[in-house]
Specification:
Blueprint lengths: L21 H11 L20 E2 L6 E8 L2 E8 L7 E9 L6 E8 L6 E8 L4 E4 L8 E8 L24 E9 L5 E10 L3 H13 L4 H14 L4 H7 L5 H15 L9 H57 L5 H26 L2
Antiparallel strand pairs: 1-4, 2-3, 3-10, 4-9, 5-8, 5-10, 6-7, 6-9
Helix pairs in contact: 2-3, 3-5, 4-5, 6-7
Length: 358
């Protein structure tokens, strides 16, 4: 889930045309590169697994996936600039329970890291709601932000922390906000999760069904998630990062069907343009990731099949040789074995041209 600031944020809106210095970002990455230790508590993967991009109105930076051992993290690189903060967005759709809390683990590799906060954008107007910033220390930081309290700020509260998130059942985007000012460096995010509303709870149950070993249950779960529509999108974004091809592809298929559903466009033309750009970026990133995943899977299976073909040819040659030496096996068993060798030969001839074709 990610939030977008757009024109409702106090900083003036402008398209994502900020030129980020590659040298500056590389320097920031070099300063904070290194291994991330295991977190002090266990957590489950969450929203951080989705596609993220930089807001255009703040300081420069990037957000991308990072694998450190068994940890699959969202790595946020920020670079000092003339703004007070940088923000990283994820387009989504979900609902929060009335007393919901949003939780995440943040790893800061350097001393004196910047504060962070969250922003949630609601409805088709993408109304920006920003939380109070949270202090971080070097190392792992458990962060918990209450979604039902009156300490969020938005345009209607004159950007004072005196209001609530409204409505909580139609979150369209989430931002991780880094109040870095002139600081450069990086942060790592893990386990960005939230307490869902009733519809979200139903989506979680269907997500478990989509991971079932039963093909009928998987198909029924996909159809049910599509029927729920946009409130199921965040769960589907996370399922589309699953390691199982069957789950990944079903989730991606359901997302495409939901995104194809007609919906009134946002009234603000600037928001519409920004959304089109963000969705194209996210769709492209998701498609590229799926294609890469499938190519790697096919390469792995091809290597396995080549190994089986080698064993098959060896077995066929050895079997024919041994068949000619048989003295005590009766004719019925001999003929049955000859039939197996014939089938093996036919299978090799059918598959081998496909594997050796350039």
């Amino acid at each position: 889930m990610t939030a977008s600031s757009f024109t409702l944020h106090p900083s003036p809106f402008r398209p994502l045309c900020l030129c980020v210095s590659a040298v500056t970002l590389f320097f920031a990455w070099t300063l904070c590169a290194g291994d991330v230790p295991a977190p002090p508590v266990k957590t489950v993967p969450g929203i951080e697994r989705g596609s993220w991009s930089l807001e255009g109105w703040g300081n420069p930076g990037t957000a991308d996936k990072s694998t450190q051992g068994e940890l699959r993290l969202l790595k946020i690189i920020f670079s000092g600039g003339d703004k007070d903060k940088a923000a990283y967005k994820h387009l989504t759709c979900f609902g929060l329970a009335h007393t919901a809390k949003i939780r995440l683990l943040v790893y800061a590799p350097e001393a004196d890291p910047p504060r962070i906060g969250l922003a949630l954008s609601t409805t088709l107007a993408y109304i920006w709601h920003e939380s109070k910033p949270v202090d971080l220390k070097k190392g792992w930081n458990p962060v918990e932000i209450a979604a039902g309290t009156r300490d969020w700020k938005t345009a209607t509260s004159d950007w004072k922390f005196t209001t609530t998130i409204e409505p909580r059942n139609d979150i369209r985007a989430i931002d991780i906000v880094v109040y870095n000012g002139e600081k450069s460096g990086s942060l790592y995010v893990l386990g960005l999760n939230y307490d869902p509303d009733d519809v979200g709870q139903k989506c979680l149950a269907l997500a478990a069904e989509l991971r079932s070993e039963d093909a009928d249950k998987r198909e029924a779960a996909e159809k049910a998630l599509v029927e729920i529509g946009r409130p199921a999108m965040e769960i589907l974004h996370q399922l589309a990062e699953d390691d199982r091809p069957e789950v990944l592809l079903r989730a991606a298929s359901a997302l495409r069907k939901i995104e194809a559903l007609k919906e009134a466009p946002p009234p603000d033309p600037k928001i519409r343009l920004e959304l089109e750009k963000q969705r194209e970026e996210q769709t492209f990133a998701d498609a590229r990731r799926r294609a890469d995943y499938i190519v790697r899977g096919l390469d792995t299976q091809r290597a396995k099949l080549l190994g089986i073909l080698k064993d098959a040819n060896t077995e066929l040659g050895q079997g024919r040789l041994e068949l000619g030496k048989l003295q005590f096996i009766d004719d019925e068993q001999r003929k049955a074995y000859e039939g197996l060798l014939t089938k093996l030969d036919e299978s090799i001839k059918a598959v081998e041209p496909l594997m050796t074709k350039k």
